[in-house]
Design goal:
This protein has 26 helices and 18 strands. It is of the alpha+beta class and 655 residues long. Among the domains are: 129 residues, Sandwich (Immunoglobulin-like), CATH 2.60.40.1930; 74 residues, no CATH class; 143 residues, Glutaredoxin, CATH 3.40.30.10. The strands form 4 sheets. Strands 1, 2, 3, 4, 5, 6, 7 and 8 form an 8-stranded antiparallel sheet that branches. A 6-stranded mixed sheet has the order 11-18-17-14-15-16. Helix 5 runs parallel beside helix 7 and helix 19 crosses helix 20. The radius of gyration is 33 Å and the shape is globular.
């Protein structure tokens, strides 16, 4: 260890309120294991468990790899000792911070600059990017924000400038980031100096901190930035690269110079008319074209000019969406048939098939698109880091295929597709809507007996919709000798599941007196809570302008239909907070496939009495006139909502 580094450690050790940080080997190289020792400052001195949080960094080209990680570390006396394994490539150093595990808000980030570990070459020199990469962490990663700091832009600019002094050949990689850092420095205003003291040096010790410089004013720097961009582009002989021009255009965009940005993008076509930047510029023009005819012409021209372009898949999706939105499904299929499988986004196809099948539109084309999606899912691997599960996507496409086939009355192929969608799944993993459709399709195809064991298994696991359960009771009624026997059969199947769910829901039950009310319904009748004594009453507070209210109607219909033959359950869809004439409610209801009792809470007295803070709000009252359950909002899952409501209602009926 050299004398200067030792001295820096001694400077720290004489001031107990300051942290000290050191590591070995003194000049680590790629592939090494670096051991570090950190002695906490006053803020972390009393913390039992301290974690080392760090990012590795390198050239701007690899900063996408700079994700926060946690170093293995243990407390030994007054210090924390740990180590990090240095990758063999794409790394020039690390920046570390130290954080209390028990109190995550306590973070030592070394006055916003973090603690650096710089990598060296085999001959002992600091690697290229070891200094500039520290600035790149501030500009290109979320690590500063994860560690709850605002970057010191004056320091960031200084690190970039030192990198360019040390390694002038790196300027093509840093010039734009340096300008961007200066822009942010100007936007943040004059820099302020950190508290007096020392901070960690680039070698893991400490040095006196120089006062931060004053940032240029935004007005002055705007012209300076424009000059810097032009100067750099002019310095590139014989001409700037397409990448440089693309970056310059982005900087002009940030400086609100659209003409300069467009002029710079136009230069790309001249510099490299067949390169990636030119392809990207033309692809963006195709995507932005709103007219379908002109979009198709531009797409054809693009594919002729760049038949193997990586942007083709994006443009295929853009054209496909342009066909899909106005419902030109035949033309959509004709277009997709001519496209290579590898240029087709199967996830987009799946969304098309699902929506078309749900809406009952273009069913032959929905069938073709679902089959195409399945084929592409099987042939094309999921993109890296996309989180896509190909097996699950194939199952979803098979379910959409079954739905499209069933609506075309091709029942046996539909049933096959539905069953394939559940292949290799345990009953508790199945999709409730697909289970419902499988059962209803099997009944229509006179194949109910063939799927009954499967249906019974999913019912046992609670993967059945209210409609499936009602249909199963109806189907079993003549076979088991009556509705009572069929109901008992269903209750036996789902006894364990319902017991578990009821226990969970019981923890959410309330027990409050239900305020009385008398309201006029939309059809001119009168309904009162007193007149419903002895029944389970479900109040659904809603308004026509409330999107989540309307979205929850399918769930409410499922729950209501489940109890349609039960005289001891009453659903009231209380229109409240409408803010408009009754005719608006009448017109809305006339357009909906929706029937039910709709009381009008014109002065909001009932919703206020029930403490409704937002809509939709659902309140369930037991037969004794006590509020036992309430929920606000809508999850978006109709089946889960309907299932929860039916379980609550049945539990209250039995209490």
């Amino acid at each position: 260890m050299n004398a200067r580094l030792l001295l820096s450690f001694f400077l720290l050790s004489t001031t107990p309120l300051l942290a000290q940080f050191r590591y070995t080997p003194e000049r680590p190289q790629p592939g090494d294991v670096v051991s570090f020792t950190y002695t906490p400052n006053a803020m972390l001195a009393s913390e039992t468990t301290i974690e080392g949080r760090y990012v590795r960094y390198g050239s701007p080209l690899v900063m996408r790899l700079s994700q926060p990680e946690t170093a293995t570390a243990v407390r030994v006396g007054n210090s924390v000792i740990g180590e990090v394994k240095v990758p063999k490539k794409d790394v020039a150093g690390f920046l570390m911070a130290f954080q209390s595990k028990a109190k995550p808000a306590l973070i030592d980030h070394n006055n916003t600059h973090f603690y650096p570990i710089l990598l060296h070459t085999a001959d002992g020199n600091v690697q290229p990017h070891a200094t500039g990469g520290q600035a790149s962490v501030m500009v290109r990663t979320a690590f500063p924000y994860a560690m709850k700091i605002k970057p010191d832009w004056a320091w960031t600019v200084g690190q970039y400038e030192r990198e360019l002094q040390q390694h002038p050949t790196t300027r093509p990689l840093y010039w734009a980031d340096l300008i961007l850092a200066k822009m942010r420095q100007a936007e943040s205003g004059p820099a302020t100096s950190a508290p007096a003291g020392t901070r960690a040096s680039a070698r893991g010790g400490a040095t006196k901190r120089a006062p931060a410089g004053r940032a240029p004013s935004p007005v002055n720097f705007r012209q300076t930035a424009l000059t810097d961009i032009a100067t750099y582009l002019d310095s590139q002989k014989p001409a700037p690269s397409p990448a440089d021009l693309t970056t310059a255009a982005q900087l002009y965009d940030q400086l609100n110079e659209p003409k300069l940005a467009q002029q710079t993008r136009d230069r790309i076509k001249t510099v490299d008319p067949a390169g990636d930047a030119a392809q990207k510029a033309r692809a963006e023009a195709v995507r932005a074209e709103p007219d379908l005819g002109r979009k198709l012409t531009a797409f054809s021209s693009f594919t002729q000019a760049f038949p193997t372009s990586a942007y083709r898949a994006v443009l295929v999706s853009s054209v496909a969406e342009a066909y899909f939105k106005p419902g030109q499904f035949k033309e959509l299929v004709h277009f997709l048939t001519a496209q290579p499988v590898t240029a087709t986004d199967p996830a987009l196809l799946l969304s098309f098939a699902q929506q078309m099948a749900e809406e009952g539109r273009g069913l032959p084309q929905a069938e073709w698109i679902a089959n195409r999606a399945i084929a592409v899912f099987r042939q094309v691997p999921a993109p890296r880091n996309s989180g896509q599960d190909r097996v699950a996507q194939i199952r979803a496409a098979q379910a959409a295929l079954g739905h499209a086939l069933e609506q075309q009355n091709r029942l046996l192929p539909a049933l096959t597709a539905y069953r394939e969608a559940a292949t290799s799944l345990t009953p508790d993993q199945t999709d409730v809507r697909t289970n419902e459709r499988t059962w209803l399709c099997a009944q229509r195809a006179s194949r109910a007996d063939s799927v009954l064991p499967f249906i019974e298994s999913v019912v046992r696991e609670g993967r059945a919709t209210p409609r499936l359960r009602s249909s199963l009771i109806e189907w079993q009624t003549p076979r088991l000798g009556g509705a009572a026997q069929a109901t008992t059969y269903l209750r036996t199947l789902e006894a364990d599941y319902r017991a578990d769910r009821r226990a969970e829901l019981a923890e959410q039950f309330v027990n409050q007196p239900a305020p009385g009310f008398t309201l006029t319904t939309l059809d001119g009748k009168t309904v009162s809570l007193a007149g419903l004594r002895g029944k389970v009453v479900v109040l659904d507070f809603w308004a026509t302008w409330c999107g989540p209210c309307v979205a929850s109607f399918p769930a409410m219909r499922q729950a209501r239909d489940y109890f349609k033959n039960d005289p001891n359950v009453q659903f009231l869809f209380v229109n409240t907070r409408e803010g408009g004439p009754v005719s608006r409610v009448q017109n809305f209801v006339a357009r909906q496939p929706y029937t039910g009792v709709i009381p009008l809470d014109l002065n909001q007295r009932v919703s206020d009495a029930y403490g409704v803070q937002g809509i939709p709000t659902k309140v369930i009252i037991d037969p004794k006139g006590r509020v036992r359950y309430r929920s606000i909002g809508y999850s978006g899952n109709a089946e889960a909502t309907a299932d929860e409501l039916t379980l609550v209602i049945e539990a209250l009926k039995e209490m």
